[in-house]
Design goal:
- It is found in: Cell membrane.
- This is Magnesium transporter CorA.
- Mediates influx of magnesium ions. Alternates between open and closed states. Activated by low cytoplasmic Mg(2+) levels. Inactive when cytoplasmic Mg(2+) levels are high.
- Helices cover 57% and strands 12% of the residues.
- The protein is built from 9 helices and 7 strands; from the N terminus they run βββααββββααααααα.
- The chain has a 7-stranded mixed beta sheet, with helices on both faces.
- A hairpin with a 3-residue loop joins β6 and β7 (123-128).
- The two termini are 69 Å apart.
Amino acid sequence: MRLLLIQPSRKTVHDLGEWPGAAPQPLAPPEDDGFYWLSAERPELEVQLPAVQALLQQLCGTPLVDLHVSDLLNAQIPSTFDFTSDYDVMLFRRLRHFPRVPEQNALQPLETVPVGYAVFDQLLLSIHPPACALRAQSMQRLLEPGKLPEKRSIATRLPPSSADLMLRQLDQMIDGYQSLRRDMARQLDIWQMALLNPRSRFSNWTQILQARLSLHQLDEICEDQRAAVQDWIDTLRTWQHTDSGSNERHALELLLVRSRDVLEHIERVIHHVHRMEQSAEAAVQLHFSAQSNRTNDIMRVLTTLTAIFLPLNLIAAIFGMNFDVLPLVHEQDGFWWAMGGMLSISLVLLVFFWRRRFIEKDSLMGTPYGEKS
């Protein structure tokens, strides 16, 4: 477990190292508007739970409720929010692999893990999965701001409260879903072009089904996240009824602004997921519609050709009868008269069907449906 002391008014972040040490000492309450950030991996919390509960009792005046402890240790729990009169608990699912591997298929089944937060006034307890990149990035942002690409001052980057630090990490997690959404949209665009190409024989139906399942899964994850953040915002609004000074009201307004920004990002992901679902469904329907129209064109051409050759078959059948006396049978040029008549009938029927648009040039030339010759 790693412990930081963040003091926004002094623009300082103190790395207190691993906690608890060999001889742990009681922590002094942070001065001014500072707060502690205790981050731990889930297995570490299981081992050091008594020490963590003692720290919370000593520093914040109350330990975690047993139900909240079980929620923080549960690796299968969905995104949710709960609160007591002393602290708030936020559980938020993030992508297991973030940043994503470039060659990884964006439409594979999504793997997510929960990150838990217990928000006290003077301490933020965050529970992460093992080897969490989010935890390392947040540490780097606080301890090594000079290595970041931003050119803003350190004061603007330091979170003013434990709740603000939690919201910043939630925003980072949502950025992972937005990046995933862009990768999904790019892959779906490729499949849509293949589906709408009349010359292609699309065979990735298993991947299309997997993509739809992944989109449904992403939609469910984001819906749980939206509900959790909305519950958090509703709880923040109840704080406005308490007697507080202008500084506290200003800090609360900043929290509400950042919370609404997080909620807006989640809703943006949900909106794009719904749009991608509709686009994928529309592409599949257009593909089958194009194939159906192509089949209809083929059947129309075959039916027209059959209708043209029916009179010729009738003529051939008549002259093939076993009678001694038939017109033109014993004539020297009878064969050519028969062939000329059959050819004339074929041309007349061909022109007739052409004028009635039963057959077209594209159909005769073999141009696939939807393309122009």
